[in-house]
Amino acid sequence: MYELILYVHIFSAILSIGPFFVLMPMTKKIRTANLDGLSAYLDVFRSAVRLVKHSGHVLVTTGVLLIWQSAWTWGTSWIVMTIGVMVVSIVFLARAFTPVIRQFHAGERTQNDLAAKLHRAVWVYISILALMLWFMTAKPAFW
Fold this sequence. Notes:
Blueprint: H1 2-30, H2 35-69, H3 77-96, H4 98-106, H5 111-138
């Protein structure tokens, strides 16, 4: 059972970060897209963020199950650090993408500015998740 949970955990980690690598080149196309193309790109972006959120739920659930079934404790440094980074990623995900997508429809800023903002947000989110992934794989001992 542990191996199955571990597999689902790893698969959900892939689904949590993978879509953003696909979105990276799309942010460049958003800069010059016409209204129909822009709408399609933003729908894909919105869907990808939704997929990442739901795979994050699976990731957290399976992570809890893995800790429960292993010898690791909740006070282990890499687990504490992973949880801390996870909280940061949740807050960032909530504030980085959906509000910017709404700004496209509101016309508050130029399309180029908003595309650049999405591009930066994708890189920041990938970096946050890469840090979390490092904690889970390297399992560093800080204390």
